[in-house]
Design a protein that fits this description.
It contains 14 helices and nine strands. By secondary structure, it is of the alpha/beta class. It has a domain at 5-149 and 176-201: NAD(P)-binding Rossmann-like Domain (Rossmann fold). The strands form two sheets. Strands 3-2-1-4-5-6-8 form a seven-stranded parallel β-sheet, sandwiched between helices. Helix 1 links the parallel strand 1 and strand 2 (32-36). The chain starts with a strand and ends in an 8-residue tail after the last helix.
Length: 297
């Protein structure tokens, strides 16, 4: 069990917030800290429980250095794409080292080493961050994540039961997982011994391709779902992208390409071993969570 204080970055977001919620089930609030660029609104529920909260973001080195004082472990949630991730992550690693942090746990994206697949504005910064951590002298744990089940509808839309699955198909498969399961794995690494200087690939236990989604979704929902292999050009014109930032269609297509190329195909069992149960699978998740209750973006 962890003895020193643990700080969770990005605790006002989805994965960071769930991780902190689960940590509170295992540790006293006095042993936990969190940062957010808007702690008054984003971290109030944690502060009310006794968690130490700070206003800081990855661009503010001095604020990070202040927040990291007296911290033993940092749960470092990766920054969003298109936000100068390399500079932000460098600030976190360097401030943690200067403050005397002993162990940083980092959420990277799963990838196939040597496959030549580079995720737009993700792979380069992930690789940089991993190398910076390994060279820092601190203990590190790399948590390599696949796509999230909660956001998988970004690629197939919210109305696939009626409109079908209309995506460029490929031979590659992928095994997405829930943020809840990833957060549970984070907590295991943060609170138990034996995870220093290790890299985990946190896949689900069931991999499938875009060509197989319609059948799986139809079985889960008890209805027939159509499926069509469309061109990348057609996908970029999908109405779900209308009114969105200019780079978003290309960014989503980059993820589809990576999934089709098998970037997330490897099933390791790491996630199941860390959380001591089988991860939630796609067919079980969509049975009660698709269509999503919120909009596409």
């Amino acid at each position: 069990m962890a003895a020193g204080k643990i700080l969770v970055t990005g605790a006002g977001g989805h994965l960071g917030g769930i991780t902190l919620d689960l940590l509170l089930e295992k540790l006293p609030a006095s042993q936990l800290a969190a940062i957010s660029r808007d702690p008054v609104n984003k971290l109030k529920r944690f502060a009310d429980k006794g968690v130490t909260t700070y206003k800081a973001d990855y661009n503010d080195y001095d604020a990070l250095l202040f927040a990291f004082q007296g911290i033993e472990k940092v749960m470092m949630i990766g920054a969003h794409a298109f936000t100068d991730r390399i500079r932000q992550h460098y600030n976190v690693v360097t401030a943690a080292r200067q403050a005397g942090v002993k162990h940083v746990v980092y959420t990277s994206m799963q990838r196939q080493e040597g496959a030549g697949i580079a995720m737009w504005d993700v792979t380069e910064s992930d690789t940089f961050t991993e190398q910076a951590l390994k060279a820092s002298g601190m203990d590190y744990t790399i948590m390599m994540q696949p796509p999230f089940l909660e956001t998988f509808f970004f690629y197939i839309g919210t109305n696939a039961l009626k409109e079908g699955i209309n995506v460029p198909f490929g031979k590659g498969k992928f095994a997405p997982v829930t943020r809840d399961d990833l957060a549970a794995a984070n907590v295991t690494v943060l609170t138990e011994e034996g995870h220093a200087n290790k890299t985990y690939k946190l896949s689900g236990n069931e991999a499938f391709s875009f060509a197989e989604i319609a059948e799986i979704l139809g079985q889960a929902k008890g209805q027939k779902v159509s499926s069509k292999d469309i061109s990348e050009e057609e996908y970029l014109k999908w109405k779900g992208f209308e009114g969105q930032p200019e780079q978003l269609p290309q960014f989503r297509l980059a993820w589809v390409r990576a999934m089709n190329a098998g970037n997330f195909e490897e099933i390791t069992g790491d996630l199941e071993r860390l959380i001591s149960r089988k991860p939630t699978e796609f067919r079980d998740y969509v049975r009660s969570n698709y269509p999503p209750t919120k909009g596409l973006f």
